[in-house]
Amino acid sequence: AHGTACAGIVAAVANNNRGIAGIAYNSKIIPVRIAYSNGLPLNDPNRVLITYDTWIANGINWAVQNGADVLSNSWSFGSPSNTITYAINNAVNNGRNGKGCIVLFASGNHYINSISYTVSYPANLDNVIAVGASSMCDERKSLNYSCDGENWGSNYGNALDVIAPGVKIYTTDISGDNGYTNGDYKWDFSGTSAACPNVAGVAALILSLNPNLTQNQVKEILFTTTDKPSGYTYSTNLAHPYGSWNEEVGYGRVNAYKAVRAVISITGPNTVCSSNSTYTLHNSPPNSTVVWTHSSNLTQVGGNSGTTYTVKAKNSSVSGNAWVKANVNGVEFEKTIWVGKPSRPYIYPYDNPLYMAPYSVQRLYAKQAYGFPDEYIWSVSGSGIREISRNRDRLTIESLANGSGTVTLKTHNQCGYSYVENKNIIVSSGGGGWLAVYPNPTSSQVTVQLKDNDNSKATMLLYDSQNNLRMKRELTYSKTEIDLSSLPSGNYILKVIKPDKAKSVNIIKF
User: Fold this and answer.
1) Residue 334 — φ and ψ, nearest 5°?
2) Does residue 353 have a cis bond before it (omega within 30 degrees)?
3) Which of 200, 249, 271, 313 has its CB surrounded by the most CB atoms within 10 Å?
């Protein structure tokens, strides 16, 4: 019954309007018996399984000799056994004609607090995939805290690799007295025994796309395409080389869709100009049917089948987002790219003109600079401002006495230069336009004057140089005095927001 439930999660027949569909429903099951029971009914507390390490090792070796690609093991053995470990090592190192079998083990289930939570043997071996269980609330199945209320927990610790659904899993059952139920299905199969075949099924899907992958390549795909359940702290360390990891959930909860999408990839340039650019399809299955397509702003060069595809920009005037897609045996894979020159960048803050108080500092940022720019070209002109520093996508300027200036920005990629963005800077002690702030600089207070006289509600926000909000005030009159005497000396940004507009003024308090 236990083996039938595990096998159904992997490979139950699909599209037949019956029961369930297995994760890898076109895969084949090689059942290997490694134990027998003492004859008591399934639910009898005195029922035990009888086995020996030589039986288990022989079962593993027999599976490898008979062509097993994935070994899903929903069992543990207690004390480590050299005989079993040797058989596992042989499967991992020599199975699949040297590419290595993918060997997975359930991490184990603890039922009372006095039992160790650590991953059980053989799941704790370095060369296997240790699978823990997650609940329907996307958390490690815990004895005391998970949402399902079942009285068991999923073993965890340094050896854990991934988790997968393992609570109340609907799966196949043996009919009659030998099954869990009297029917063909069990609706609440639980434990890391259920989680392990979940991941084994995903491993089978990966190999169905590319059977030439090694066991290490399959492990990397599984571990790097997980989802990270919230509520856990993930860290990166040399003991877990496939990304961020946590002792309760490993690299995360397995994601079949992401794993399958990661098997086949398209590589090539991120930017396409009027010259030819070639893209390459990697890890497609042998004898695959491949059909390429592209976005309307590209032109195909040559054929649209095979593992490579060449395109170029439709003409020299196009620019924007683009894509190439490879349809592999009915499954579509896409690479997003950029065609043509970069888009015109924006300079943040977006105010234009931007008002600055005399002798204040302002950092400007390039925003929405699409098109994979390899260079940012800034220039500063005018008697009212001067450049202090620049670093790729940012520029720092200082205002001088009352006056004005202009900052310009354009970007460059391999196809050419973007259009130029201009930012006008006005240096004024009182701001400008519909808003005036004075005196500025100040030692104690400033007057905020609304000069548009439209009587609409206005909100004043005052930020320090670290962007911390220091004051908030509703402005209900044309002139409002703001007391700054309790604030330390430094640069501040006063922002006034109205329903249809907003303006910022730099304030210097000495």
Assistant:
1) -130, 145
2) yes
3) 200
Tokens of 264: 């086949």
Give the integer Cα–Cα distance in Å for 102 and 75.
16
**Spatial CA neighbour of 386 closest among 359, 351, 348, 352:** 359
Short-list 218, 204, 195, 76, CA closest to 138:
195
H/E stretch holding 222 reads helix 215-224
Asked if 404 contacts 474 with a C-beta cutoff of 8 angstroms, the reply is no
Q: Which of 168, 222, 140, 120 is nearest to 5 (CA)?
A: 168
Q: Tens digit of pLDDT for each residue in 56-85?
A: 999 999 999 999 999 999 999 889 999 999
Closest CA to 190 of 167, 164, 163: 167
Distance in angstroms (rounded) separating the CA atoms of residues 91 and 208: 19
φ, ψ for residue 420, nearest 5 deg: -85, 135
53-67, 286-300, 495-509: which range is least confident on average?
A: 495-509
Q: Which of 344, 298, 293 is nearest to 321 (CA)?
A: 298
Alpha-carbon gap, residue 199 to 256, rounded angstroms: 8
Please give the Cα distance from 509 to 446 (Å, whole number).
Answer: 10
203: helix, coil or strand? helix
The number of angstroms, rounded, from the C-alpha of 94 to the middle of its chain's C-alpha atoms is 33
Tokens representing 465? 């140089």
Residue-wise DSSP of 36-101: EE-S--TT-TT--EE--HHHHHHHHHHHHHTT-SEEEE----SS--HHHHHHHHHHHHHTGGGT--
Number of other residues whose CB lies within 10 A of the CB of residue 413: 22
* SS3 letters across 177-192: CCCCCCCCEEEEECCH
d(CA 411, CA 408): 10
Rounded Cα–Cα distance for residues 172 and 186 (Å):
6
Check if the beta carbon of residue 201 is closer than 8 Å to that of residue 214.
no
Look at residues 111, 112, 91, 110 and name the one whose alpha carbon lies nearest to residue 102: 91
Residue 233 has pLDDT above 60, yes or no: yes
Q: Are strands 445-450 and 435-438 parallel, antiparallel or unpaired?
A: antiparallel
- Other CB atoms closer than 10 Å to residue 169's CB: what's the count? 25
**DSSP for residue 442:** B
Measure the CA–CA gap between 279 and 309, rounded to whole angstroms: 5
Q: Are strands 290-294 and 265-267 parallel, antiparallel or unpaired?
A: unpaired
Residues 6 or more apart in contact with residue 395 via CB below 8 angstroms: 363, 364, 378, 380, 387, 389, 407, 409
List the structure tokens of 282: 């990697």
